[in-house]
Design goal:
The complex is a heterodimer. Helices cover 24% and strands 35% of the residues of chain A. By secondary structure, chain A is α+β, with helices and mostly antiparallel strands. In chain A, a hairpin with a 5-residue loop joins strand 4 and strand 5. Chain B starts with 11 loop residues before the first strand and ends in a 6-residue tail after the last strand. Chain B is elongated. The chains are: A alpha+beta, B alpha+beta.
Chain lengths: 152, 160
């Protein structure tokens, strides 16, 4: 399999990835370790919360989104890491049993000013459940190596 | 946790610290972010990070862990004073998240939270909306992590 480089990312729709099934057990395990709020751990407390039922931590959604990006394309991309996330919107709760799909769009791709051998590709990812409801939306740049023969 | 009315803009809380061991870094990465520089010391050394580096999502999740623990401490203190506990609502998201410097195996990151803005919600009068800048600083005093968090915080009931 060829490695994807900066040149492979052009503005526009890039791909749709998944589905990724999310179990109750993994929602509880992540919440117990990183986000032990009652709305993520306890069915009764969750019913009374704003989210009206047990939901996964937003950080769990982010971590799953990362894994879906890795499995979808980052794992075969000359990725050098990310400087951050411009925006993450948690739009609707992640529920036990959800089957997630991830739609990836490239919003910007530019050559780095400080490191000529790299480019910065900004991705917008929308994660949806099986009903097509958008649960989360993330905009984040990733540093990607340029093809050797493309660097002047 | 505190009520909307009790939170002052500019208030800063130290949330505690966390040491990112190689074992913890690899465990998180294997599950959620298995890029070589998060899994393997040699690959980490060859990367821009210069060593085995924690996934940025690991750093973010640990910050959340310490934010929740701090909220639980505040709740206990409120109970001890015989006060009502404020149960915070969910967060609609965050902005301006920056992984400023790599968090390498063995690094200890201390997190803190600074309240930047607060406003009442028009759609949900029983809630206020708070923005806080949460940051992480390593054992050398270098800023490694920062983001602007938003959360729904309950208002005190009228007349309470």
């Amino acid at each position: 399999m060829t490695t994807l480089t900066f040149e492979d990312f052009k503005p526009g729709h890039f791909g749709t990835f998944g589905p990724r099934h999310v179990t109750r057990e993994e929602i509880l395990a992540f919440a117990a370790e990183y986000d032990p709020q009652p709305m993520h751990l306890d069915e009764e407390a969750a019913k009374k919360s704003m989210l009206k039922g047990l939901s996964g931590s937003g950080w769990h959604m982010c971590a799953i989104l990362m894994r879906m990006m890795f499995d979808g394309f980052i794992g075969r991309t000359a990725s050098m890491g990310s400087p951050g996330v411009n925006e993450m919107r948690w739009l609707a709760p992640l529920r036990p049993g959800d089957d997630l799909t991830l739609e990836i769009e490239v919003t910007e791709a530019r050559v780095s000013r400080s490191r000529a051998e790299t480019g910065i590709v900004t991705f917008k990812g929308v994660v949806r459940n099986a009903a097509g409801v958008a649960l989360g939306e993330m905009v984040s740049p990733i540093i990607v190596r340029r093809r050797a023969d493309a660097v002047a | 946790m505190r009520f909307f009315e009790d939170i002052e803009i500019g208030a800063r809380r130290e949330l505690g610290s966390f040491t990112f061991t190689a074992e913890a870094i690899k465990k998180f990465a294997a599950q959620f972010d298995p890029q070589a520089f998060h899994l393997d010391e040699e690959a980490g050394r060859r990367s821009l990070f210069g060593g085995l580096a924690a996934s940025g999502w690991h750093v973010g999740s640990v910050c959340m862990k310490l934010l929740v623990a701090d909220g639980q401490r505040l709740a206990k203190e409120a109970v001890a004073r015989g006060e009502e506990i404020a149960v915070w609502g969910p967060s609609p998201g965050f902005r301006e998240l920056r992984w400023i410097r790599p968090v390498l195996a063995g690094d200890t990151v201390s997190f803190s939270s600074l309240v930047e803005t607060k406003r009442t919600s028009d759609k949900r009068p029983e809630w206020g909306i708070l923005q806080a800048r949460n940051t992480g600083t390593n054992q050398r005093g270098e800023l490694v992590y920062s983001f602007l968090a938003t959360a729904f915080v309950p208002r005190r009931k009228a007349g309470a």
